[in-house]
Amino acid sequence: MEPKSFLLCITFLLFSSSSSSSSEILQKQTYIVQLHPNTETAKTFASKFDWHLSFLQEAVLGVEEEEEEPSSRLLYSYGSAIEGFAAQLTESEAQMLRYSPEVVAVRPDHVLQVQTTYSYKFLGLDGFGNSSVWSKSRFGQGTIIGVLDTGVWPESPSFDDTGMPSIPRKWKGICQEGENFSSSSCNRKLIGARFFIRGHRVANSPEESPNMPREYISARDSTGHGTHTASTVGGSSVSMANVLGNGAGVARGMAPGAHIAVYKVCWFNGCYSSDILAAIDVAIQDKVDVLSLSLGGFPIPLYDDTIAIGTFRAMERGISVICAAGNNGPIESSVANTAPWVSTIGAGTLDRRFPAVVRLANGKLLYGESLYPGKGLKNAEREVEVIYVTGGDKGSEFCLRGSLPSEEIRGKMVICDRGVNGRSEKGEAIKEAGGVAMILANTEINQEEDSVDVHLLPATLIGYTESVLMKAYVNATVKPKARIIFGGTVIGRSRAPEVAQFSARGPSLANPSILKPDMIAPGVNIIAAWPQNLGPTGLPYDSRRVNFTVMSGTSMSCPHVSGITALIRSAYPNWSPAAIKSALMTTADLYDRQGKAIKDGNKPAGVFAIGAGHVNPQKAINPGLVYNIQPVDYITYLCTLGFTRSDILAITHKNVSCSGILRKNPGFSLNYPSISVIFKRGKTTEMITRRVTNVGSPNSIYSVNVKAPEGIKVIVNPKRLEFKHVDQTLSYRVWFVLKKKNRGGRVATFAQGQLTWVNSQNLMQRVRSPISVTLKTN
Fold it and tell me: Which pTM value belongs to this model?
């Protein structure tokens, strides 16, 4: 996906923060130094800070004469997310620390990028009565959701605390003061706010980017992304919410009764891992219940993944962690944030549309969508000449600013291909050159994706099929003309959910033995809160002002699941993060609102696109059975993958012997709610074990139903589970056997299916696990 504006990129990217300068070995950059926990040496120091500082002092004195105090180079001292610190080091100093027996790892800092009025209704949360999700969960009351993002606009009506209960006594956080942000900016809804900028600040000097927009050095949001995600996760009820008249309705977050704590870790140049780790470290101490991270990067190994490492300790302390899957779809194996202790969320569509149809002069209609407020405006819908400027090296087909010849496009409607610059930026380029309207054309990579924008001039987005027809008409017509007919807001007339084209896909490169993403949730054209000093496009030259705007991305789907997680936690405060995730996954939908299989483009969606399916909070609040996982199980799981002792220490902060663990756990299977089976070359049978815990009614009986993957025979034992009481746990085994025709490699190397436990007393209660089978050919 393109950036919403030059201020904000909602496509995930991962860059090294190390400088490309040739200033050799003395140039400093930020490194995260992870230490062995609970070492005897630490006890000889007055504080952890002093202990951490001693490593820096030793490295500095061992390499060069230092004019500045070593303490000035220490950015963060960590103690909850990891044991260690972040500091400015030269390459030789970092290398020296790697040789220390008390150092687990030394990693360069990395920068990552960030990734409503209707969606709660689409998810069925607006029902009332004792059986509704909001009623059972008390709207999420008592739960604290930590949001790591670009900050918050506290004056937004979505953070009004009218009717909110008192702040939970366990809360240990603060409302950190800073630029245009005081302690009074927080209330009973927005109970805490902090900002983390040290990693970002040392990596970016003001001289490097004099044209960057103004950033608040505080928890105040300068881009809108954090305000949008925070209000989606738990925003208060706001009547008459709309975007310049479109999408009107009552805005609510998923858990409107929950408390929100904001941790600003993302700035105009991205989100640095040292700052992210510091925020996770503090959030654990603050006693949040849920962490929502709409940020990430490309897939990387778990032992190098700051988010995976930092959130392991959060999970150990009972905190549910929800992460965006990434916006690099539909590329295979693009899914990020794949640690099994986090919930990885892809994006789906809603059945809400904003039609803006292109009517050609020959009478043909091409369907498009837009949030430009043009309905009923005569000037916005008038017929004008259409032009598509191509050729040259200025990027005119993408409508880059300064690339469009005014003499050719003045007074005309301009076709712009998607890509390179932001969608709304293209409209500004047209305005500057004298154009009056825009047709934003999907390219082949975008297909029929329909992420809308609040454009600066009359404009609409058309799919790839329509764009081919549009360009053919322009090329074949002497004086092509068209008009845009704006249709406002239309609900319930289209199939939904469908998988968003941009939503990252599995299988996981870093961790293929776990099926990722875990599930999908609404992430396309989500309307939520927006800073009151920004226009709805987020562009600096957009003078319009709104309280809400529209955004798309897995950044938007992530907070939906974060809020629903808070609801389930509020209803079942003693459940583990794994049990809550299980409830969400095993009850997820495979079918859309019309009862047909969820689509991924023009085909049924596979498990690598939707994981377990589309989240369904109405079912998740009463899952019947859950698959629980203890923190120690993840360590055993990492041992089964062949991770080294040092890798496991880096990830889990535990110094373990895998040989001993594996002897005690022969044939171990991680008790994950989905099933991923990998047949290595020459193997014909694989067996897994699962355990389910009854969280429904006593004296419940479940029978198994299997849809076997093609070419695979599936045997389950036992086929019937009888639970005498609540919280009872029973085990079952599943054998996957390659059929003879599959053993010669003559069929597909991948197949999918599902295993479902059906409640015999309530056939509507079904506990379903998706199955992924991969046949390795080498």
Answer: 0.91
